[in-house]
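User: Good morning. I'm curious how AN7 would be positioned relative to this chain. Could you predict the structure with it bound?
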Amino acid sequence: MKPWAGVIAAYRSRLALPDDAPDLTLLEGNTPLLRSAALHESLAGNLQIFFKYEGLNPTGSFKDRGMVVAFARALARKASVCVCASTGNTAASAAAYAARARLRCIVLLPGGSIARGKLAQAAMHGARIVSVSGPFDNAMRLAQELAAQRPEIELVNSVNPYRIEGQKTAAFEIADTLGDGPDFHFLPVGNAGNITAYWKGYREYAEAGKIACRPRMVGFQAGGAAPIVEGRPVSDPQTVASAIRIGNPASWKGALAAAEESGGWFGSVTDDEILDAYRFLARAEGLFVEPASAAGVAGLRKEVARGRIPPGSRIVITLTGHGLKDPDMATCIAPPEPISIGPTLTELLAVIEA
Ligand code: AN7
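Assistant: Good morning! Here's the predicted structure, ligand included:
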């Protein structure tokens, strides 16, 4: 078997990418599609559930798939600087690929909290980190204004169509592994680039005759940051899932089209439901994800309880980012409290038998 060489090498013929764009890669993609061990047992309906574990990408989130394609295109057009607005994962990924591609990287973060692991990544990879007051949408608007004014600067948010091109490869991988599309695809939604990209991937595979079943796309937002569900921008989005604390998604239209064309829908889950799913994935599935990544699982639980998922359905849930991204949330939910003992077996036995 040929070793994996990244999403551009694997899917180049299906990506709208200039021929002179280089085969840039950090060996992103080819992530596990893992059958659930416990979730299906806790739900009615004998469901076949698979997790697409995107936390195993090089920088720990799905963003790498789109970033590598955006940077390949940036190199082809000889951009020298990249900019993005980010709740953290886009920044971490952009910073890594900028280092690899030798571009300068500027990241604009919203005021308020960014998960510490993501900040550490952006700083380690040498990005210039700027905090913009107010919600994410302010940072997003500034990034767009800067890129519009300076041709040498590449905007690498998912409004950049090359990001969507790269991210659609996750749908290709799922279909290649299952031999068809699933019945439903659940995922968390923030800026809505990912749901737009998955749907593009499934649609293109169906048009190419590679799959017969196109999944219903079901996107979940956090209750305090659910503009698509509510049908209007949210001016002060609030949720513990900082990755999806977004009040005015950049790819709103793409998201609506994905749900409408696929027969899917949007829903919201509370922070408590997100954190319950977060704990469940770690304890019962062995999968440590960041809080936002648990929103799809929380969403499936909700829709099963409402009777909206037919028995026997095949379901894929994207787990978008790794749990180590947000160590503060993890230690808050499950405080590590070691029990101190001396180096004797007697003391150790006393502790484990207590
Ligand atoms: C873990 O990094 O928007 O709906 O700036 O980090 O495609 O935005 C992150 C989004 C889900 C939502 N899960 O995806 C950013 C950013 C995680 C994320 C989403 C994000 P989109």
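The longest helix spans residues 193-207. The chain has a mean pLDDT of 97.
Let me know if you'd like a different ligand tried.
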